[in-house]
């Protein structure tokens, strides 16, 4: 029985900051951001948008009546949880009005959480072939204004339907994974900005990739030449390129050319959205599928997932006949193109206006409400979400 991703969709905030503009304000050479890091634009979430609203917005594109009736689990991988106890999956379950006879769970292991959810979903479907699983990987990456990590911030969600006989891509039973406790990146529960040992984290990302890639080749008798494309966890696009380079020394020249070209296709969404932690790998997969029309059914795609702390996994998927019919490339392009560019002062104000880590009531600014689902406030320490009419927008003025 084939098991894999039947449908996939993304969501990201309707506001962004241009990184060339930001570089100039910060006194940096724009090439440092656009070439050295490999980022062009960065999604900026207002306080009314969080992993729940983005996850629900992404998932709402996929939950048809048939899928709704077949869902057995809702899994959310994130490291931006809105509560230390209650699962974001339960908030999303309510917003989507899903059946009550399902499991709803949140999973955490840094940027690996989305892959953990995907693999749990695959195992569940193997035992329940008539069921489907809604998997959501959603995050908001925050490091702070004018910090070393500022250019690698971002926000977004990727939703996937996992089921038997998928129409998009199978998840092959060839995973190799590795876990080792290290301190390269973490976020204490009392703050919403991460602490990163940047150079060390990069070194560990590459070392973990080399280790699982070597073991994957040995166990599965496959090499880079067997892959039509490879996708990576992308905290920023240059990180994935460094990992890809480690897989290419023994590859045939045509393989090197193919994998580099398709890697570039896989980074286009990341370059415009930024880092979305648990969803970054799947945003890369979606970008590859949306931007490379030469892919064919039967092509093998490699996927490398990395979560600081650290857990890494390399596995592959096989594109299915008619897979391109399941894509929503035009929808994604329109969403990105219709976003509103913020001035740097507006970006800084939006970044600083956040739901506080204290018991006081808080109300987001309705001028920034966007999309079908919004956080309308925190009252009595309870988060309040609202489902609004599709494509609703409260503000038409230019925000600057």
UniProtKB/TrEMBL annotation:
Keyword entries, A-Z:
Acyltransferase, Transferase
Annotated active site residues, numbered on this chain, are: 79 (proton donor/acceptor), 111 (acyl-thioester intermediate), 233 (proton donor/acceptor)
In what residue span(s) does the Hydroxymethylglutaryl-coenzyme A synthase C-terminal domain sit?
A: 257-350
- GO molecular function terms here? hydroxymethylglutaryl-CoA synthase activity
Q: Which PANTHER family match?
A: 3-HYDROXY-3-METHYLGLUTARYL COENZYME A SYNTHASE, HYDROXYMETHYLGLUTARYL-COA SYNTHASE
The keyword Membrane is assigned to this record? no
Known CDD domains for this protein?
Answer: init_cond_enzymes (cd00827)
Summarize where (3S)-3-hydroxy-3-methylglutaryl-CoA binds, as residue positions: 29, 143, 242, 275
Write down the superkingdom of origin. Bacteria
Matching entries from Gene3D superfamilies are given as:
3.40.47.10
Name the Gene Ontology biological process terms.
acetyl-CoA metabolic process
| Source species | Lacticaseibacillus chiayiensis
Q: Name one Pfam family in it.
A: HMG_CoA_synt_N
Is the keyword Acyltransferase in the record?
yes
Q: Which family does it belong to?
A: Belongs to the thiolase-like superfamily. HMG-CoA synthase family.
In Swiss-Prot or TrEMBL terms, this protein is called Hydroxymethylglutaryl-CoA synthase
The EC number(s) attached to this protein equal: 2.3.3.10
Residue span, Hydroxymethylglutaryl-coenzyme A synthase N-terminal domain: 2-163
Q: What class of enzyme is it?
A: transferase
